[in-house]
Amino acid sequence: MHERTQAPWWRSKGGIALTGFALVAAFYILREHYAHALGALPYLLLLACPLIHLFLHHGGAASGERPDAPAGR
Fold it and tell me: pLDDT tens digits for 16-26?
């Protein structure tokens, strides 16, 4: 028998409605607070740097082994 998989939440009617509402809300918030959002942008970029650093190093070889080292060593 085939297993029936559930569709992702964003493909459901509620997910589409929520996404549309969030886009409209974001448009109006950014439109009304455009000057505030642009003034905070440099600080948001600086705050994003440590997060980017952590996420980019998460998938690296954290165990200290070199990926090209022979398996017997």
Answer: 999 999 999 99
Q: Which domain holds residue 43?
A: 34-58
Domain count along the chain: 1
Q: 19-47 pLDDT, tens per residue?
A: 999 999 999 988 898 887 788 889 989 99
Within a domain: 52: yes
With respect to residue 43, please indicate whether it lies within any of the assigned structural domains. yes
What single string gives the DSSP state of each residue in 5-69?
Answer: PPPPGGGSHHHHHHHHHHHHHHHHHHHHTHHHHHHHHHHHHHHHHHHHHHHHHHTS-TTS--TTS
Local structure of residue 72 (DSSP, 8 states): T
